[in-house]
């Protein structure tokens, strides 16, 4: 490069004809022109902030190439000083403008060193994920029951007919076993249709007293719509000990409902039927959307059905090897997808499974 070979403003070259070295005094004016070209060439090669800083040091710093020429200006005859000084000033502002134009591009809106770090700016927030609304509902339900002394248990989503139906006292011709409701994987293997088989798995491995809740995903072959899904979530509860009573079941459910839905809710128990509980009930609470006046959410009844429950059927105890003369117990099960939708005013259950970040971010 031109100014790499120049030394103190003197160019050395060999005159081949005479084989002698000739020394030519280069003028400051020439050097200014040469340095301008050198700066342009170097500038065209800059690729990064680091490159740009090297460029600044090389040309614009106090001891840089332009500074050196300013030093030389002191040594030229006085009459040349004004003209050369003007040229040098022009060179300097030209190189400065090159420097600033690129700095602007690499660090828009900022000048100089402060561009790299501006300590006065607020920190950048790191995007943070949230728990899925179903998980949040589940966690709230689990927290209420664990505070009442319930432990947590889980079981497989791929179940056998035995645990999903047979042990739970479903007669062989029960409609729930129908292909319409159950996703069968093979004749005896299926996707569990409820979390009740987990009760069985717990009782098979443990002696009373038992107090567990069992959250999990369940599957039913239903037409998918705003109001129903073919996969959803349940929380199952089971309490087995000596002398567990029906009023304890009701007390547990009311305590839960008041904690979860609010102190002032009204509730009612309706007689119901499940093969694995006797007697069985379903619990309704006043619709918290319309406060019982009647709205589309509660199908204009003013009531929402929130769970099924009952006293564990003696046949179930016999099937797991417990003596129904010695122990009694209650069980309950509730869906949590619809509860989650009601809580947050989500109009379509399918939104819970779409995993649209714009939707999930709101919870
Ligand atoms: N397993 C029942 C269902 O899916 C709910 C239930 C659980 C009812 C426990 C009674 C006792 O509908």
Write structural notes for this entry.
- The chain is α+β, with helices and mostly antiparallel strands and about 375 residues long.
- About 40% of the residues lie in helices and about 20% in strands.
- The chain has helices at about 1-5, 30-45, 50-60, 65-75, 80-105, 135-145, 160-165, 195-205, 245-260, 315-320, 335-345, 350-355, 355-360; strands at about 10-15, 20-25, 150, 160, 190, 210-220, 230-240, 265-275, 275-285, 305-310, 330-335.
- Strands 3-6-7-11-10-9-8 form a seven-stranded mixed beta sheet, with helices on both faces. It has a two-stranded antiparallel sheet with strand order 1-2. A two-stranded antiparallel ribbon has the order 4-5.
- Bound molecules: phenylalanine.
- Phenylalanine binds next to β10 and β11.
- Phenylalanine (PHE) binds near residues 194, 196, 308, 331 and 332.
């Amino acid at each position: 490069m031109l100014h790499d070979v120049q030394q103190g403003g003197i160019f050395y070259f060999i005159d081949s004809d005479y084989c002698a070295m000739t020394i030519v005094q280069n003028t400051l004016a020439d050097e200014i022109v040469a340095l301008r070209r050198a700066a342009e060439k170097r500038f065209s090669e800059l690729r990064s902030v680091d490159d740009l800083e090297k460029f600044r040091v090389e040309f614009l710093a106090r001891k840089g190439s332009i500074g050196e020429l300013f030093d030389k200006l002191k040594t030229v005859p006085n009459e040349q000083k004004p003209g050369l000084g003007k040229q040098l000033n022009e060179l300097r502002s030209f190189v400065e403008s090159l420097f600033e134009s690129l700095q602007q591009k690499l660090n828009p809106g900022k000048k100089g060193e402060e561009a790299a770090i501006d300590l006065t700016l607020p920190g950048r927030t790191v995007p943070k994920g949230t728990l899925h609304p179903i998980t949040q509902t589940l966690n709230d339900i689990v927290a209420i029951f664990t505070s009442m002394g319930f432990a947590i248990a889980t079981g497989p989503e791929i179940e056998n007919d035995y645990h999903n139906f047979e042990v739970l006292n479903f007669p062989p011709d029960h409609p729930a076993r129908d292909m319409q409701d159950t996703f069968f994987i093979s004749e005896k293997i299926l996707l569990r249709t409820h979390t009740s088989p987990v009760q069985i798995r717990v009782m098979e491995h443990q002696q009373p007293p038992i107090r567990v809740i069992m959250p999990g995903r369940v599957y039913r072959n239903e037409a998918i719509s705003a109001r129903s899904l073919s996969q959803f979530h349940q929380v199952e509860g089971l309490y087995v000990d000596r002398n567990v009573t029906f009023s304890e079941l009701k007390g547990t459910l009311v305590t839960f409902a008041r904690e979860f839905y609010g102190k002032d809710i009204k509730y009612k128990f309706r007689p119901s039927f499940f093969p694995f509980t006797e007697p069985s009930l379903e619990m309704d609470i006043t619709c918290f959307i319309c406060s019982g006046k009647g709205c589309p959410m509660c199908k204009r009844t003013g009531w929402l059905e929130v769970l099924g429950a009952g006293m564990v059927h003696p046949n179930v105890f016999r099937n797991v090897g417990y003596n129904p003369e010695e122990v009694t117990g209650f069980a309950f099960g509730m869906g949590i997808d619809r509860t989650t939708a009601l809580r947050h005013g989500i109009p379509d259950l399918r939104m819970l499974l779409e995993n649209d970040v714009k939707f999930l971010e709101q919870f």
